[in-house]
């Protein structure tokens, strides 16, 4: 299970545990080494599109990686909102509506 840490720190940990040089992972992700270094330090954001490649490269659960990534994004957005529970309930209803609308097309 992933620790409560920055996603970039987790990716660096995976890369180092695999003995993979920065240049190799940056090539796999099709980004330059300095960008990957900034991602690992939390100075630049990881993109959602990178997650499947990272999960496959290090043989980790993609679902866990995506859930951690998106939940952190939502948490940071809502951290100072006084109506968090109401917002999350409204989001849940909106997702149900959108899912139903997409499935009925």
Model description:
It contains six helices and no strands. Helix 2 (about 20-30) packs across helix 3. It has a single domain (about 5-105), classed as 434 Repressor (Amino-terminal Domain), CATH 1.10.260.40. Helices cover about 70% and strands about 0% of the residues. The N and C termini lie far apart (about 35 Å). The model has no long low-confidence stretch (mean pLDDT about 90).
Short description:
This protein is mainly alpha-helical and 105 residues long. The protein is 69% helix and 0% strand. The protein is built from six helices and no strands.
What layout of secondary structure does this protein have?
Blueprint lengths: L6 H11 L4 H8 L3 H8 L10 H8 L3 H17 L5 H20 L2
Helix pairs in contact: 2-3
Percent of residues in helices comes to 55-70%
Q: Residue-averaged pLDDT, rounded?
A: 91
Number of discrete domains? 1
Structural class: mainly alpha
**Can you count the helices?**
6
Tell me about the biggest sheet? none
Number of strands: 0
CATH superfamily: lambda repressor-like DNA-binding domains
Element string (H = helix, E = strand): HHHHHH
- Which fold does the CATH topology refer to? 434 Repressor (Amino-terminal Domain)
What Rg do the Cα atoms give?
17 Å
Percent strand equals under 5%
Q: Which geometry do the CA atoms define?
A: elongated
- For the record, the CATH class is Mainly Alpha
Assign the CATH architecture: Orthogonal Bundle
Terminal-residue CA separation: 37 Å
Give start-end ranges of low-pLDDT stretches: none
């Amino acid at each position: 299970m992933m620790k409560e840490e920055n996603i970039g720190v987790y990716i660096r940990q995976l890369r180092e545990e695999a003995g993979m040089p920065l240049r190799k992972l940056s090539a796999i992700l099709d980004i330059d080494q300095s960008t990957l270094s900034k991602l690992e330090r939390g100075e630049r954001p990881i993109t959602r599109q990178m997650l499947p490649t990272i999960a496959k490269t290090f043989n980790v659960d993609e679902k866990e990686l995506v859930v951690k990534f998106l939940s952190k994004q939502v948490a940071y957005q809502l951290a100072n909102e006084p109506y968090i529970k109401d917002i999350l309930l409204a989001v849940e209803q909106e997702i149900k509506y959108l899912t139903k609308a997409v499935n009925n097309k």
